[in-house]
Write a structure and sequence with these properties.
Layout (H helix, E strand, L loop, with lengths): L1 H11 L14 E10 L6 E10 L7 E8 L5 E6 L4 E3 L5 E4 L2 E4 L2 E7 L4 E12 L22 E18 L2 E4 L3 E10 L5 E7 L7 E12 L2 E12 L2 E6 L5 E7 L3 E7 L3 E8 L4 E6 L4 E19 L8 E14 L8
Antiparallel strand pairs: 1-2, 1-12, 2-3, 3-4, 5-6, 6-7, 7-8, 8-9, 9-10, 10-11, 10-12, 13-14, 13-22, 14-15, 15-16, 17-18, 18-19, 19-21, 20-21, 21-22
């Protein structure tokens, strides 16, 4: 009993690690690596993970490769037995492929495409973890019955290395990257998600999401926003009693204004053409995630005191953006 409790606490305090040891289906866990080349001409998302359905025949590991400019996406399926994850650190292997906080090694060669190479990540800025708030989910991270959990492994970091994709070398030296993850039983029924760390001012990163959260037989609208700027993380979250003052969604924009106890954050995301990527429910990995890396996000952070100056105003490029499922439920006018 004590050993199980110690293991549970250790895992909650390390959201980047694999959480599926000993879990029963349905269960999924996936990590999202976003890499942008120095010239911003190559934008790649690599998504490794594991999916366990109520139907054992649908159990499998996977690696998704998404080209954020062309929109081309491939889903590489592996036997579930090829997935192996360490218990005491963030390190997972899918066949010959390796994924950690600091590096990726890819060795994919199948009928869909070939991808080989190594990428390294330096000066990774993680989301703060404490007993009160063990990661981006805050105290909700301690609850054992949530349908979906979210984690941010790296808000911003440098990328080094190169990949050979279908015989073409792609150089990522001098690029920037971002890493996050999700795990649980199923994606929410509706959500908005966005992320960019390509502002004119370096050392600036935004990650933001709002979703329909199942909770104890009912549901509520929850949101988590982190804006990293000049060494400070500005947090806006349901569990911190922050408020969405306005959230409008149309075919061209996501227009979102939030406030916490000290600041107001205005986000205007310009929607772009998307590619449907597979995402989990309790039965299968269906194409339910409309993904793009071609969005632009205008961000303005101001103090609540009217006589104070603007903290930040700028535009994030190469932005990821998803508007999915029952997103109409998220609207606040």
């Amino acid at each position: 009993m004590l050993r199980a409790l110690t293991h549970y606490v250790d895992l909650v305090m390390h959201p980047e690690r694999y959480h599926g040891h000993g879990k029963h289906p349905p269960f999924f866990e996936g990590w999202y690596y976003k890499m942008i080349s120095a010239d911003r001409e190559r934008r790649i998302a690599i998504i490794p993970g594991i999916f366990q359905s109520d139907d054992p025949a649908k159990h499998h590991a996977f690696i998704q490769i998404f080209d954020g400019l062309s929109g081309d996406a491939t889903y590489h399926r592996f036997p579930a037995e090829s997935f192996d994850a360490a218990r005491d650190r963030f390190e997972l292997r899918i066949g010959p492929n390796l994924f950690t906080r600091d590096r990726i090694h890819l060795d994919i060669d199948d009928d869909l495409r070939t991808v080989h190479g190594d990428l390294r990540f330096n000066s990774v800025i993680g989301w703060p973890v404490s007993a009160a708030e063990p990661g981006i989910m805050g105290y909700f991270g301690w609850l054992s019955f949530m349908e979906c959990y979210h984690g941010v492994v790296g808000l911003d970091h440098a990328v080094e290395g190169a990949l050979t994709i279908d015989g073409q070398s792609v150089d990522f030296y001098g690029g920037r990257g971002y890493i996050e993850k999700d795990w649980g039983q199923s994606f929410p029924s509706g959500w908005v998600w966005m992320q960019t760390n390509h502002f004119d001012q370096p050392g600036t990163s935004l990650t933001a999401s709002s979703a329909v959260i199942p909770f104890m037989g009912t549901s509520f609208i929850g949101f988590i926003v982190g804006f990293w700027h000049h060494g400070r993380l500005h947090r806006f979250a349901t569990y911190r009693q922050s408020k969405t003052e306005r959230l409008e969604i149309d075919v061209e924009h996501v227009d979102w204004t939030l406030c916490n106890g000290t600041h107001r954050l205005h986000i205007l995301a310009h929607r772009a053409e998307t590619t449907p990527l597979p995402g989990p429910d309790k039965i299968e990995m269906g194409k339910r995630v409309p993904e793009t890396l071609k969005s632009r996000i205008e961000v303005r952070l101001t103090p609540l005191k009217e006589d104070s100056s603007v903290v930040f105003a700028g535009v994030g490029e190469c932005a990821g953006l998803e508007v999915a499922g029952e997103w109409e439920r998220l609207i606040v006018r």
